[in-house]
């Protein structure tokens, strides 16, 4: 009976699942093109302009992202992301606010309709009139998450691989402008001299350029566990709210409020010291797919060097949410449909 219900739930979700998967994969394809455009055309141009003024690429980044621009810097990964590196730029697609918004919409929308949605529509009585214990309903939704979340996560990786294949290797263009001439006036006693010199163009070796612009699609695969963990955590918390309520819209309101609050605390805490201690209390603090993509540890620093693995936290929150949903749903009285 459980698998019959699972097939029914997946069948009801198939259209939304396909649309969301296409959106996630399509954005990664688009982001691969944006990365190629920035590193192949814009970055060499601005780097040369900065070199004429005695500045480096890092100096330009610091100038662009200072002040209010620090918010954008934090949204794309903070100080650990170097915008002149192809892997760093491409990894921004996994933490882009649009991607996180789609993750939350899917998780909240699906979980809010799981229990409270059935009560709101008046179909819960028909469903439980079958020989189906209440715990099997929660188990069925848990199985649906086990089937759909890997597919959604995989769509990001497919989009990244497809986008890098379509774009091809990044070939930086040589800026088509002449270097400015510097004029120096020298005075040696009664004699005056005018010296003109051309500023050299900044160049890097072929090996350095190859490493900087190299894209390794296989490195994005392990990050899918972090993506799935975030969606599973939001699903679990929302499922608990859904099991305790009868109005789908009220559940969605509370879930959106809690999720948005956590997102803002994690974001503002990077810039405002009084809120910084509250960042580890949010699930977004443990959503660090860029660290995995760039080959860094799968842990986050919670407090003074105390490192906590991100995956157990994300999946643990989801499991706790489902456990509380099971306990709440099995103990509560179900109201009659209005």
Structural overview:
By secondary structure, the chain is mostly helical. The chain has one domain. It has helices spanning 2-52, 57-64, 69-75, 86-91, 97-112, 116-121, 124-128, 134-167, 206-213, 223-244, 248-268, 289-293, 310-331; strands at 181-188, 191-198, 299-303, 306-309. The strands form two sheets. A two-stranded antiparallel ribbon has the order 1-2. The longest helix has 51 residues, at 2-52. The mean pLDDT is 81.
Mean pLDDT: 81
How large is the radius of gyration?
26 Å
SSE pattern: HHHHHHHHEEHHHHEEH
Helicity, as a percent range: 55-70%
In total, the number of domains comes to 1
Low-confidence stretches: none
Structural class: mainly alpha
Main sheet characteristics: 2 strands, antiparallel
Termini separation: 28 Å
Task: Note the beta-strand portion.
Answer: 5-15%
How are strands sequenced across the largest beta sheet?
1-2
* Annotation, overall tally of beta strands: 4
How many separate helices?
13
Give the overall form. Answer: elongated
Features:
single chain; 338 residues; mainly alpha; two-stranded antiparallel ribbon; two-stranded antiparallel sheet
């Amino acid at each position: 009976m459980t698998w019959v219900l699972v097939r029914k739930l997946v069948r009801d979700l198939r259209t939304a699942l396909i649309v969301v998967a296409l959106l996630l994969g399509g954005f990664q394809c688009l982001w691969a093109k944006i990365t190629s455009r920035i590193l192949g055309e814009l970055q060499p141009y601005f780097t040369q302009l900065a070199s004429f003024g005695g500045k480096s690429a890092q100096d330009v980044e610091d100038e662009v992202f200072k002040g209010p621009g620090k918010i954008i810097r934090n949204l794309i990964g903070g100080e650990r992301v170097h915008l002149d590196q192809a892997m760093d730029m491409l990894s921004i697609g996994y933490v882009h606010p649009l991607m996180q918004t789609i993750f939350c919409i899917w998780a909240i929308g699906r979980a809010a309709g799981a229990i409270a949605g059935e009560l709101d529509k008046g179909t819960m009585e028909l469903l439980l009139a079958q020989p189906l214990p209440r715990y099997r309903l929660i188990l069925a939704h848990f199985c649906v998450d086990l089937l759909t979340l890997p597919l959604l996560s995989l769509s990001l990786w497919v989009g990244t691989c497809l986008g890098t294949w379509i774009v091809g290797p990044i070939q930086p263009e040589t800026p088509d402008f002449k270097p400015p001439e510097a004029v120096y006036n020298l005075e040696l006693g009664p004699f005056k001299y005018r010296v003109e010199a051309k500023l050299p163009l900044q160049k890097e070796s072929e090996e350095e350029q190859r490493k900087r612009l190299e894209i390794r699609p296989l490195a994005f695969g392990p990050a899918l566990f972090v993506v799935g963990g975030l969606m599973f955590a939001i699903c679990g918390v929302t499922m608990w709210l859904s099991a305790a309520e009868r109005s789908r819209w009220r559940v969605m309101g509370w879930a959106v409020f809690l999720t948005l609050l956590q997102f803002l605390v994690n974001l503002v805490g990077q810039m405002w010291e009084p809120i910084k201690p509250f960042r580890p209390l949010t699930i977004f603090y443990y959503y660090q797919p860029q660290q995995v993509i760039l080959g860094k540890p799968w842990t986050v620093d919670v407090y003074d060097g105390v490192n906590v693995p991100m995956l157990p936290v994300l999946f643990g929150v989801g499991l706790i949410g489902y456990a509380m949903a099971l306990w709440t749903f099995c103990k509560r009285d179900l109201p009659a449909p209005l």
